[in-house]
UniProtKB/TrEMBL annotation:
UniProt keyword annotation of Electron transport present: no
GO function terms (MF aspect): ATP binding; DNA binding
One Pfam family in the UniProt entry: AAA_lid_14
Coiled-coil features, chain-numbered ranges: none
Designated name of the protein: Cyclic nucleotide-binding domain-containing protein
Xref: InterPro entries: AAA+_ATPase, AAA_lid_NorR, cNMP-bd_CS, cNMP-bd_dom, cNMP-bd_dom_sf, P-loop_NTPase, PAS, PAS-like_dom_sf
Residue ranges of domain Cyclic nucleotide-binding in the record: 18-133
GO biological process assignments: regulation of DNA-templated transcription
PROSITE patterns named among the record's database cross-references: CNMP_BINDING_1, CNMP_BINDING_3, SIGMA54_INTERACT_1, SIGMA54_INTERACT_2, SIGMA54_INTERACT_3, SIGMA54_INTERACT_4
Annotated keywords: ATP-binding, DNA-binding, Nucleotide-binding, Transcription, Transcription regulation
Domain Sigma-54 factor interaction: 297-526
């Protein structure tokens, strides 16, 4: 540990209450024997039952103090834990786990005790802190001794709090005679004069037996949650279901109970609110995990500039948009651009990949479900359409949506309403729909695999995204932007593309489009050395040997489309010669001098299929 780091630790410890009275010279000795330890998220630092051997000071991050799943509290930067290990070696009474990446200063018991024995200044500082704490306890005791009036005032406040509580609060004795009822309880019992009445008279038979049983068996602890709902029957005959919490107090001769009742309607409203927030939290966490760097839409080619024009034209309308393009062309970027340029930009943009969710769960994801709607539905859940209310929903891979679910989506588009799974309640939403697909939906509709009426409802404003290979020098512009981003992210300075390297990017077909380009560049930056990248080894089939490049004996200039057709015909010739065998000896890949994976990508990109 460097001298500078030691002094940083000394200055840090001077701000920690436990060491605030210790002089810096003594703290320097302590730090020399201490050790900095880094703990990743969810790593246990102290385990309950282990023998204590050190205390810890939190330098960065924070931890939770817990016993299994029960959390006692959290500790943050500048706080200490494990101090008892300095005076005894008894087993730890709790566990401590890092809540995020956490840096600790570990002070072992032996070093601490040696410093206490050998350094009077250190001992004096620690004792000063302990004395200060003891004096603070004395002051607390003095305040407690003179707090009779405060207790009376507190009692008055407590009475006001009980009477003002929205929950019904009933206090009764061992004979079930009520001696206190707040205003909410009187309203629930429909009776203003309940003193000395038997509380059981206001319950139905089953609930009365339940309350008697719990009281006779003894309510454990300060609060016992009643295992079943209790039915209250008011003096005017009104019946309500309530959840209840029972507590007891007293001595061997006199026992008293407090019953707190909450109307189930209040609880359901709270649960629905919590579930809604949890659903939004889960969705946002998924979005954070899935979102990568947004390179924006870089466009110089006329075909992509046309797309930008279409985005501006449709953004300010409420029209449904169908984005079509090959996989990896950036359909989600187009959807985000439409949303951000629209009047709904302040609302949420909710995305869902219809092809990534199992068919038996997609309906629940889109429209939500009620508790008990199906096996495993232990709580109600809000669907993505409800989360997208007043905003936009992006339905990626819409061609994968199950056929039996398509009428429900059609209803949302036409009527702006849907029914959650397991519910008969219709929910209205105001959502703008943007769908995307790489499949021919019209062809699918003719084959009966996609509803034709849904296709026309989605295809109000179609946008076709060109493949990367058809965008000319856009591939070089996008590559330069991505190289700049990943080099900064990874911390490496990469030399810009030369003209020859740009030509390699232009010659490759990019069957995976922008997504393939992004993955390839990220990999290239990772393996780069001294700021240089051998792109000929990175870009597939970018370094053919001279012997394998056919010599052009005439001066005819081929168009890019002609070259694509020549490559397609050449691959067909190789496939026919190898009897459509791709890999292995005498396979088409070997004949063409390509890797089998590269050949498969080209076959897919060129739309080559084996004749039936």
């Amino acid at each position: 540990m460097t001298s500078a780091r030691l002094m940083d630790l000394v200055n840090f410890l001077k701000e920690v209450p436990f060491f605030s009275e210790v002089d810096k010279a003594s703290l320097l000795q302590l730090c020399k024997n201490g050790a900095e330890e880094q703990y990743p998220i969810n790593r246990t630092i102290i385990r309950k039952g282990e023998l204590g051997e050190a205390m810890y000071v939190i330098l960065e991050g924070h931890v939770k103090v817990h016993d299994k799943d029960h959390i006692y509290g959290e500790l943050h930067k500048g706080e200490c834990f494990g101090e008892y290990a300095l005076i005894d070696s008894k087993p730890r009474s709790v566990s401590v786990t890092a809540e995020e990446e956490t840096l600790l200063l570990k002070i072992e018991t032996t070093h601490f005790q040696e410093l206490m024995d050998s350094n009077s200044g250190f001992t004096k500082g620690i004792m000063s802190v302990l004395i200060k704490r003891h004096r603070e306890l004395d002051r607390v005791q003095e305040r407690l001794a003179s707090s009779k009036k405060e207790l009376e005032l507190t009692n008055s406040k407590m009475t006001g709090l009980i009477n003002g509580a929205m929950d019904a609060i009933l206090m009764f004795d061992a004979n079930f005679r009520i001696f206190l009822a707040n205003d909410s309880a009187k309203k629930l019992l429909e009776n203003e004069d309940v003193d000395q009445r038997n509380v059981l008279f206001f319950l139905d038979e089953e609930s009365a037996q339940l309350l008697e049983s719990v009281c006779q068996n003894g309510a454990e602890g300060s609060n016992t949650y009643l295992p079943k709902m209790v039915k209250i029957i008011g003096s005017n005959g009104k019946e309500t279901l309530n959840e209840g919490t029972l507590s007891h107090y007293g001595n061997d001769t006199d026992t008293f109970y407090t019953l707190i009742l909450r109307n189930m309607e209040d609880r359901l409203m709270a649960e629905n609110k919590i579930t809604s927030l949890e659903s939004q939290t889960e969705y946002l966490q998924e979005e954070i995990k899935e979102l990568t760097h947004d390179h924006g839409i870089i466009a110089e080619h006329s075909s992509m500039k046309k797309v930008l024009e279409l985005i501006q034209q449709v953004a300010q309308t409420q029209a449904t948009v169908l984005v079509h393009g090959e996989t990896g062309t950036g359909k989600e970027l187009v959807a985000r651009a439409i949303h951000e340029a629209s009047a709904r930009s302040n609302g949420p943009l909710i995305r869902i990949n219809c092809g990534a969710i199992p068919a038996n769960l997609i309906e629940s994801e889109l429209f939500g479900h009620e508790k008990g709607a199906f096996t495993g539905a232990t709580n109600s859940r809000k669907g993505r359409f409800l989360l997208a209310d007043k905003g936009t929903i992006f339905l990626d891979e819409i061609g994968e949506l199950p056929l039996d679910l398509q009428p429900k989506l059609l209803r949302v588009i036409q009527e702006g309403e849907f029914d959650p799974v397991g519910s008969s309640t219709t929910i209205k939403v105001n959502v703008r729909i943007i769908a995307a697909t790489h499949r021919d939906l019209l062809k699918l509709s003719k084959e009966g695999k996609f509803r034709e009426d849904l296709f026309y409802r989605l295809n109000v404003f179609p946008i076709e995204i060109p493949a990367l290979r058809d965008r000319g020098r856009d591939v070089c512009l996008i590559a330069d932007d991505m190289i700049g981003y990943f080099s900064k992210k990874i911390g490496r300075k990469i030399k810009p593309l030369t003209s020859a390297q740009q030509q390699l990017f232009l010659e490759y077909g990019w069957p995976g489009n922008v997504r393939e380009l992004q993955n390839l560049i990220e990999r290239a930056v990772i393996v780069s050395q001294n700021g240089g990248i051998d792109w000929s080894n990175i870009i597939p089939n970018s370094n053919p040997s001279e012997e394998m490049v056919p010599k052009i004996k005439n001066e005819h200039i081929y168009t890019s489309q002609e070259l694509i057709q020549l490559e397609k015909q050449n691959i067909l010739n190789a496939l026919k010669k190898s009897q459509w065998k791709i890999s292995g000896k005498n396979g088409a890949a070997a004949l063409l001098g390509l890797r089998p994976t590269t050949l498969n990508s080209k076959i897919k990109a060129l739309g080559i299929s084996r004749p039936v």
